[in-house]
Design a protein that fits this description.
- By secondary structure, the protein is an alpha/beta fold.
- The protein has two domains: 199 residues, no CATH class; 171 residues, no CATH class.
- The chain has nine helices and 19 strands.
- Strand 7 and strand 8 form a beta hairpin.
- Helix 3 packs parallel to helix 5 and helix 7 packs parallel to helix 9.
- The longest helix has 25 residues.
- It is rod-shaped and about 120 Å long.
- It starts with a strand and ends with a helix.
Length: 381
């Protein structure tokens, strides 16, 4: 985007890690004019915001508000800059001289001798703290001659909003000898642009330890559920004692693996919570029934127990659900084997006992649908 800046304005923008905000500004104040490129980046890992302004000509800025009569001297016009009077450390050649030109001085409001030079960046929000310059051997000192201006901010922990105002920039023109250069202030502009910034944070940043811990818990409850299934693969037991052992094992697991009520904006971590709770629900819903009552009922001509059919149907559905959340081919083969054993066992019981009552037929219909669903979902793998 290329535009000219004239009046005070506020720009609402957003940045995130790896996705900076950029814009181009043009100021045609003379034949060459000035082209600026503004870039705002957010480093979420260090929790820092960066403002970078690159110019087509040499730039000068003040890091703090300062009055002209404090840092400029001269017998009549106070046009000579005295860098040593600035309140912050600077990088400058001792032979360099900096002068205000008449065209710049005329832009000052009267009394011109007390003109206030604005710092080039004003922090608007409490979430930002300016940081000293680093790198390039600056050691906390600010360069007076700049092709690129950089301002670094520390961002308050967890902050999602920030704002600063871009103020006065100056263009310098170099004259004089290389051994004793002179720099003339030929243009100044108060950009008067406030950037209201939305910081888009990665909700998963810093959650790796929690994810690793949750993966261990998911694997543990997955294995525990597998062991519970193996105690009664078909969902039926040969004695009431075996049913009691199954239920004791189930209650023990429920006491060791509590359901997770936590929630998070991190999708990866939330998915792990969901997987863990899925296995918890499978344990909670696991059923084992004693089929001896059905053995005696066939002698009385009553057919298969509906509870046996419903328990087998529920077990087949649980196996399909379990397969949907695992990527382990060995575990999937084991689940298929368990399902086949359930279907084979139920077929043998049905042939032996038969179906005689409406309640039994309804239960058989539920089992057949579960059986068909298992075949379509699992046996194609």
């Amino acid at each position: 985007m290329v535009m000219s800046v004239h009046a005070q304005q506020t720009k609402s923008i957003s940045v995130e890690e790896g996705m900076p905000y950029e814009e181009a500004l043009t100021f045609p104040f003379d034949e060459k004019g000035l082209e600026l490129k503004v870039m705002i980046t957010f480093d979420e890992h260090t929790n820092e915001l960066f403002l970078k302004v690159s110019g087509s000509r040499r730039l000068f800025v003040f890091q703090e508000d300062v009055y002209r009569n404090r840092v400029f001297t001269g017998f009549f016009s106070r046009k000579h800059l005295r860098p040593e009077r600035l309140s912050y450390p600077v990088l400058v050649s001792p032979r360099a001289n900096f002068y205000l030109t008449k065209q710049v001085i005329k832009r000052f409001a009267k009394p011109r001798g007390k003109h206030l030079f604005n710092r080039w960046v004003e922090v608007v929000s409490a979430s930002l703290t300016p940081l000293p310059p680093v790198g390039d051997g600056q050691s906390g000192r600010y360069a007076l001659l700049n092709d690129t201006l950089v301002m670094r901010f520390a961002v308050a922990e967890g902050a999602t909003e920030a704002a600063f105002t871009l103020r006065n920039l100056y263009v310098l023109m170099e004259t004089g000898k290389p051994t004793k250069p002179k720099y003339r202030f030929v243009w100044d502009q108060d950009l008067a642009t406030t950037y209201a910034i939305t910081l888009r944070r990665d909700p998963c940043l810093g959650s790796q330890a929690a994810q690793d811990s949750m993966k261990v818990r998911v694997e543990a409850i997955q294995q525990a559920y597998g062991r519970l299934l193996k105690t009664a693969p078909s969902g039926m037991a040969d004695s009431s004692e075996e049913v009691g052992v199954f239920n004791q094992h189930k209650q023990y697991l429920l006491s060791q693996f509590l359901s997770v009520s936590d929630s998070t904006d991190c999708g990866d971590l939330q998915q792990l919570y969901g997987e863990y709770n899925h296995y918890w629900e499978l344990i909670d819903q696991a059923v084992c029934v004693y089929s001896a009552a059905a053995d005696s009922s066939i002698q009385r001509g009553k057919g298969i127990s509906p509870d046996v059919l419903l328990a087998a149907a529920r077990r087949l559905d649980n196996l399909v659900a379990l397969a949907s959340v695992t990527k382990d081919p060995v575990e999937i083969r084991d689940l298929i084997a368990q399902g086949r054993e359930i279907m084979s066992t139920m077929q043998a019981i049905l042939q032996e006992k038969g179906v005689r009552t409406p309640e039994q037929r309804d239960a058989l219909g539920i089992f057949r649908r579960a059986e068909d669903y298992f075949r379509k979902s699992m046996l194609k793998q």
